[in-house]
Design brief:
Elements lengths: L2 E3 L3 E4 L4 E3 L6 E6 L3 E7 L2 E3 L1 H7 L8 E4 L3 E8 L3 E7 L17 E6 L5 E7 L2 E7 L6 H22 L6 E7 L6 E4 L2 E5 H6 L4 H14 L7 H15 L3 H4 L16 H15 L3 H11 L5 H7 L3 H10 L4
Parallel strand pairs: 12-13, 13-15
Antiparallel strand pairs: 1-2, 2-3, 4-5, 4-7, 6-10, 8-9, 8-10, 11-12, 14-15
Length: 316
Amino acid sequence: MLRIRTSALVLSAGLFLVPAAGYSQVTVYQHTSFGGTAVTFPVGDYNLSAMLSRGAANDWISSVAVASGYKVTFYEHDGFVGASLVKTGNDASLVDDGWNDRASSMRVATNTGGPGTVVYNQNGYTLTLVDKGGNVPQATKDRVVQAYFSAYPKERTRFNTGATTSVTLTIDPAYTGVAFTSAGKVTCSAAWLVGHPFDADGCGTHEFMHVVQGYPGGNPGWAVEGLADYARYKYGIFNSQAGWSLPNFSSSQHYTNSYRVTARFFAWLENRVRPTILLELDDTMKTGQYTPSFWTFRTGFTVDQLWAQYGANPTL
């Protein structure tokens, strides 16, 4: 995006007026695109009375500027209750979050990235991020949050509109793996995120797909994990920064290798054999009725025959 900096603002190709450095910890605006009356707030808690005393109004805020190192939590009702929305950076329009003219109280705090729980709300989706250790940089956690609001709605819309719209992700310093999902809750290794700060799609997008899947037991693990990595391939937003991609085909591979190997096979099946095959596979595994005959019924070939065709011409 082209941006032209002046002493007062940044004008982007999207025609948003973005405040330049030097504003207070948080500045709220009456209109979108940082327009209308502006009211600044230093660190502190502001019920409705306190907001009014500074010049803001009830159900009035439409955009917000947040200085680096700070965050603001908006609350739907006076007294810091009801739905909430956390912002750690500038947002030219709260309309997309469903928060235009909605805030009745707010808290401004430093954003140190320490331990604690933060609840994020956007477009009808909620992510509760629980950090048990506090050693994961805030920028890394922000990428996990971005991955959730970018990928999870797409995964849910495509594969399971009955899946929850509220997910809890816990960053656990005691967990020595990478990530896992159980009963709709995601756990990520703090050590992994510290060592792999751009792997928000591994700890996030892949695991969020498991929330969408919600399969009963008995399904083949290679298909479950392959479909989750396929979702990462389709909907991940930090894959390139994390150095993650689907591997080229090799004769040493097999579809039961799972994860990226299977994900690429699935992408090939979707592109070359049957466009609806992955939705059909997902539906079958949801019912717990998967058998190897699924492939013959849907494509006319066994999965081994399909793999052989893939090996002969693996171009996606």
